[in-house]
Design brief:
The chain has 340 residues and is α/β, with parallel strands linked by helices. It is 32% helix and 15% strand.
């Protein structure tokens, strides 16, 4: 049997005549908004869980980005909806790049910044200078002025007591001065009531076909740390992924994994131990371009590098691959949501 329904009040009629009479009544029927209201309420409820800062499923964390460089931490954390409240770097070109891509002008020398002038935040990020501990440097450690910058990081920790500390450096930091340098850093952080986890990560294990390795040290404030689970914050097995240069850059590379992108040694002879940018592609010598290296460091093709060509190469050689900051950010998110 055919049914007739009023689009306004949703009333249903068995006979067409009754339906037409209903439509012609002098006093129009009132629109029934019950369904629309219910739908609207459900939509609002769903959206609130995504964008409402008070929602238990969304924590709008704030972070500071010390020695920010190109902003690998910012690049990844922005995707999680987290807010950068302060960045700093003493390189003018780097600061221009940061402002161009994130809309924030980094402050200057970290030694001149008073922690009291910085608003509260949840995460302190610092890829502090690695040259004092690197195999490529003189490995002077704390005897190098740049090595002592670690203690300028700690002045922010002392003042703000952020929930998380994320430090990045070369793996040589672990063995420098027979491990004493690392132990000093670890002891300093632990003395501020943080539990520590650390691990050396390799790009090629997580989908970026590059040999680059970096040490990450994560401190979790002890009042929020779950001791039974803290070691799992750097258990990143779920993010492991293998890919090769040929597929990643879309060219017929003979080599599967790229050398570590560096600041020096560019255009060294292809068989020289200092070579990192020269490869064989389709039987011919090929040199990585700036665009190639942007991709190998995890930045998309919309990212803008400031400065001259030399400045751009230097920024690429110094940056933290974004795959590291991305998976660590996700791990912290899961930790806070008790998923690890």
């Amino acid at each position: 049997m055919v049914k007739y329904s009023c689009n306004n009040c949703q009333k249903v009629f068995d006979q067409k005549g009754h339906y037409e009479k209903h439509l012609q009544r002098k006093t129009p029927c009132k629109k029934d908004n019950t369904i629309e209201r219910l739908v609207e309420e459900k939509v609002k409820e769903a959206l609130s869980k995504i964008i409402n800062p008070k929602s238990s499923s969304f924590i709008p964390l704030k972070f500071i980005d010390l020695f920010c460089g190109m902003g690998s931490f910012h690049y990844s954390f922005k995707k999680l909806g987290w807010e950068c409240v302060m960045a700093c770097d003493n390189n003018v070109v780097v600061k221009n790049t940061y402002k161009e891509n994130y809309g924030i002008t980094p402050l200057d020398d970290v030694t001149l910044i008073e922690p009291s002038t910085v608003q509260d935040y949840d995460i302190l990020c610092a890829g502090f200078p690695c040259q004092p501990f690197s195999q490529c440097g003189y490995r002077k450690g704390f005897e190098d002025k740049r090595g002592t910058l670690f203690f300028n990081i700690m002045k922010f920790v002392t003042f703000h007591k952020p929930k998380f500390i994320i430090l990045e450096n070369v793996q040589g930091l672990l063995s420098h001065d027979k491990g004493q340098t690392f132990n000093k850093i670890k002891t300093e952080i632990e003395s501020m009531n943080y539990l520590i986890e650390y691990k050396v990560l390799k790009c090629s294990d997580y989908g970026l076909p590059q040999m680059r390795k970096r040490l990450f040290i994560i401190g979790i404030r002890d009042d929020i740390a779950k001791e039974a689970q803290i070691e799992r914050i750097l258990n990143l097995k779920e993010y492991e992924k293998k890919t090769i240069l040929k597929d990643f850059l879309g060219k017929n590379f003979e080599k599967d994994t790229a050398y570590t992108i560096r600041c020096g040694g560019k255009r060294s002879p292809i068989n020289d131990k200092h070579n990192w940018d020269g490869y064989i592609v389709d039987g011919k010598e090929y040199r990585l371009s700036i665009d190639d290296c942007l991709k190998l460091q995890g930045f998309d093709n919309t990212f803008k590098l400031c400065g001259n060509v030399g400045d751009q190469w230097k920024q690429l050689g110094n940056t933290i691959p974004t795959i590291f900051t991305e998976i660590i950010g996700k791990s912290i998110y899961n930790y806070l949501h008790k998923k690890v």
